[in-house]
Amino acid sequence: MWKDLGDREAGKLRPYSFSNRITSHRIASLQLSNFKEIVSPHRGAVNSLQVDLTEGRYLLSGASDASAAVYDVQRATEYEGGGLVARHKSIFVVDKQHEHGHKYAISSAIWYPIDTGLFVTGSYDHYINVWDTNTTQVVVNFKMPGKVYRTAMSSLATSHMLIAAGTEDVQVRLCDIASGAFSHTLSGHRDGVMTVEWSTSSEWVLLTGGCDGAIRFWDIRRAGCFLVLDQSQSQLGRRPPLLECSAVNKASTSKSASQSVNMKSRAPHKKVANGNGSKQSGISRSSSQAKGLVRQRLHPGMLSSQDRATAHYGAVTGLKVTNDGMYLLSAGSDSRLRLWDIESGCNTLVNFEIVRLQTSKAMQLAITNDSALVFVPCMTAVKAFDVWSGKTSMTFRGHYEYVNCCWLSVQDQELYTGGNDRQILVWSPSGLNFDEVGNGDRNKLIPAQDQDNWSD
Fold this sequence. Notes:
Layout: H1 2-10, H2 15-28, E1 30-32, E2 36-38, E3 46-51, E4 58-63, E5 68-72, E6 78-80, E7 85-88, E8 90-94, E9 106-111, E10 118-123, E11 127-132, E12 137-143, E13 148-152, E14 162-167, E15 172-176, E16 181-186, E17 193-198, E18 205-210, E19 215-219, E20 225-228, H3 242-266, H4 277-297, H5 304-307, E21 316-321, E22 327-332, E23 337-341, E24 346-347, E25 366-367, E26 373-378, E27 381-386, E28 392-397, E29 403-408, E30 415-419, E31 424-429, H6 439-445
Parallel strand pairs: 2-7
Antiparallel strand pairs: 1-31, 3-4, 4-5, 5-8, 6-7, 9-10, 10-11, 11-12, 13-14, 14-15, 15-16, 17-18, 18-19, 19-20, 21-22, 22-23, 23-24, 25-26, 26-27, 27-28, 29-30, 30-31
């Protein structure tokens, strides 16, 4: 770390590279925090976690006891152990006792992407509620045709306020907060939709994973899905860098162009007896081009062979798009993780080490900002896999029962995990963190060997 600081001061290391190195170093040192504790008010399994995307300060959780809670993860409620342990209690809780609370388990709880004034909960009671954070009242709700497995909102959206909902119904529904009505109904899956995820490169592209094992891509501006992932369509490894691709493409196009010029110059003119041979060839060429255009216009949802393609042999339980929008990670009830190239729609054949995944409910995956590591709930542990090699980088053990969700905070590189043991655990970079402690308590946190006579 000190070498990196020296290189940054000397100008040998660019700011972005320096930031990535520090972040990677902090993530590599994650361990169960001894100085920070989330006091969970839930009496059921924690199914969903999310830190708000605007301030990175408020943690939202949803649980199987039909309760949702919000915590301030930057300012502790109280301190224990002589000021060493910061305890974060919930700011507020909405549960069954609330007049508009859910009646059954909350499966999904998400923040409104651009403001902490709203949050959204989806439940097994067939309702999606949009809450006002300040008044803890329901602003609008949507009645769904079945249990709600997962909800998602696009962090890039500037022209719509749509909530994508995956339910036990075969159709994906988009709920418009502005109008309080359904704006889209996407048909294509042959079984319930367990997970939904918006693209990180386009506000119009939605990805859905179903209990039928299919992963579908939708452009919500047009009818039908435009891509269905097929696990049998594969390419080896990640895509080459953009500069190399462009150089190779330029070389190949120039070579093909020169070859075509040579062929044209050398090609002899064939004489046809009836005199209309050139006309027939032109007609056949145009008809073949027309057939090609017709085939291009048909989206995969209309082609029976591609429509039945599957990405997993069981239900798709988790989806996570990399921050650059180029790759997709999927988890299935077949206990398989797969990495997909979004542009080509191919399975990259990255062999993730053997894992055991839950099969009964949707999972929440997390990924680092540089797309180097993916955090996956694996039964009672959370494993961090190298995205490009598939090898296990770290294993986090602390829960007593199955883990359902995890969230990586981008600002302070802390990992939050929730499981069936009703606990929310905090995994922090190793070393004391003085950022959240007031000036009055800092002297209490300084180890005895570091104290001196002139400290304030």
